[in-house]
Amino acid sequence: MARSYKKIRGRNAATETFPGSLATMVVRARPGKPSQGLLQAGPLVFACALGKGGITSRKREGDGATPLAAMRILSGYFRNDHFAAARRTRLPMAAIEAGLGWCDAPQDRNYNRPVRLPCKASHETMRRADHLYDACLVLDWNIAPRKRGRGSAIFFHLARPGYTPTEGCVAISRRDMARLLPHLSRRTILKVVR
After folding, report:
1. Which one is catalytic: 48, 103, 136, 169?
2. How many DSSP H helices and E strands does the chain contain?
3. Is residue 157 flagged as an active site residue?
4. pLDDT, tens digit only, all 194 positions of the chain
5. Angstrom distance (rounded) from CA 170 to CA 157
6. Where is the active site (predicted)?
7. Is 169 labeled as catalytic in the residue annotation?
């Protein structure tokens, strides 16, 4: 897909504006490409990457699938040195420091929570060399209550070139994230459907 947006009913994502806050964004798999999707935000549709396992209603830790669910955006993290545009949002955002991680070990008491590095339990490093988490929003998947093995670190973050698969997150281009952030709040729901 050459562009990360497309025209919808005479509208163009390059010029369209949103009227305030977005209540819901809907994500669907692209026909014939279960690890790529289309994210509808208001009247606009953006390309997105999904988990390498496609969309599932039976999410498990390590399955690489994106959960079939309506998930509220809770907060976010950003790299101040790489993505200052993340400051322009209604969401609570924290700068990603070198010692920030996210625990993905189901047996650990910090499962599916941020942790300080170094950490003995299995975890993700939030300050990544590939820049995927330069803007990273935390979705409320398996947060409260947390259930062991139901999946961790389901984020809304930046996509790799070509929208290659994630480990279960939803990912969009840097340009599209900068465009959406000012219209997102803790009331925004990211709804993954089939």
Report:
1. 169
2. 1, 15
3. yes
4. 434 444 444 444 434 455 678 999 999 999 999 999 999 999 999 999 999 999 999 999 999 999 999 999 999 999 989 888 888 899 999 999 999 999 999 999 999 999 999 999 999 999 999 999 999 999 999 999 999 999 999 999 999 999 999 999 999 999 999 999 999 999 999 999 99
5. 7
6. 157 (proton donor/acceptor), 169 (nucleophile)
7. yes
The catalytic position among 123, 136, 157, 183 is 157
**pTM for this prediction:** 0.89
By three-state DSSP, how is residue 7 classified? coil
The DSSP secondary structure of 37-83, one letter per residue, reads EEEEETTEEEEEE-BTT-EESS--TTS--EE-SEEEEEEEEE-TTT-
d(CA 80, CA 70): 29
Query: Do the Cβ atoms of 124 and 99 come closer than 8 Å?
Result: no
Domains of the chain: residue spans and CATH: 21-192 (2.40.440.10)
- Residue 145's CB is within 10 A of a number of other CB atoms, namely 6
Beta strands, E only, the chain: 5-6, 24-30, 33-41, 44-49, 55-56, 66-67, 70-78, 93-95, 100-103, 114-116, 123-125, 135-139, 155-158, 170-172, 189-192
DSSP string, 69-80: SEEEEEEEEE-T
Rounded alpha-carbon distances, angstroms, from residue 166 to 54, 182, 187: 9, 24, 25
